[in-house]
Specification:
5-stranded antiparallel sheet, alpha+beta, globular, Proteasome-type protease, UCP009120_prtse, Glutamine Phosphoribosylpyrophosphate, subunit 1, domain 1, Ntn_hydrolases_N
Length: 261
């Protein structure tokens, strides 16, 4: 299993992914699930992947091969993000069909992707590509996309993320969402990759690769845990807690102790 996340704001986007691949309890490996394509001052793309590893690796290989051979379309020839996502979806569907034809063991070769990027002066976008080749944008109410093990990291996104959130805040929220997933699901694990993109920069300059023992990752997780405990302690009290702690209740208790003695 895996967990990948994209947050799309007014000022750019944030991407976050883990690196765990699991083909059984005794076959655990680490592979990057964030793949970037950059032509400075022209266009940038980042692709997050989840699903069958053979499919996702061959899709990335095909994207690079099409660039090398100057096949049309490719990521450099497409004129807008919709052409880009159509192209990636077509490659993904083709690769899945190739694997399915060769398969004799009923293996699931499906893969899901998130494509984020910007071409020239057009608006930056994030889109999720389903295994069947169709795709969607994030909603305005919840401007984020998730693939893989999504349920543990979703609550904080629902409560915090909106179009107006700053990129640094969105980045920290993405890492907290990932931390919650890592703590609750053993199939999602470090290293964690984070990319923060400023719109119109047409370059990827803010990227982090965080191992389990990374000081920043540990500090962020510990700070989040402390904050949760403090918030829990400051939640409104039950009615009976208030009455039990009132001066009248305390006096009644002391009077009862005197009588009983």
């Amino acid at each position: 299993m895996t967990y990948c996340l994209a947050i799309n704001t007014e000022t750019g986007f944030v991407l976050c992914s883990d690196s765990r691949t699991n083909a059984g309890f005794d076959n655990i490996s680490t592979y990057s699930k964030m793949h970037t394509f950059v032509w400075p001052n022209n266009r940038v793309f980042a692709l997050l992947s989840a699903g069958n590893l053979a499919t996702t690796q061959l899709v990335i290989k095909r994207l690079h091969a099409d660039l090398d051979s100057r096949a049309v379309p490719n990521l450099f020839s497409v004129e807008n993000m919709h052409e880009a996502v159509d192209y990636v979806a077509t490659v993904s569907s083709s690769v899945q069909n190739i694997h399915a034809v060769r398969d004799s063991g009923n293996v699931n070769f499906e893969a899901t992707f998130i494509l984020a990027g910007q071409i020239g002066t057009s608006r930056h976008e994030t889109l999720m590509i389903y295994p069947q080749g169709n795709y969607i944008h994030e909603s305005n109410e919840h401007p984020f996309l998730q693939i893989g093990e999504i349920k543990y990291g979703k609550p904080i996104l629902d409560r915090v993320i909106n179009r107006h959130i700053s990129l640094p805040e969105a980045g920290r929220c993405a890492l907290v969402s990932m931390n919650s997933t890592v703590r609750s699901n053993l199939t999602v694990a470090h290293p964690v990759e984070l990319l923060v993109y400023d719109k119109d920069s047409l370059s990827f300059t803010h990227q982090l690769y965080l191992g389990e023992d990374d000081p920043f990752a540990k500090e962020l997780a510990e700070s989040w845990n402390r904050g949760l405990l403090l918030t829990l302690q400051n939640l409104p009290k039950f009615v009976w807690e208030k009455s039990e702690n009132s001066p009248a209740a305390n006096n009644s208790t002391r009077s009862s102790q005197v009588i009983n003695s």
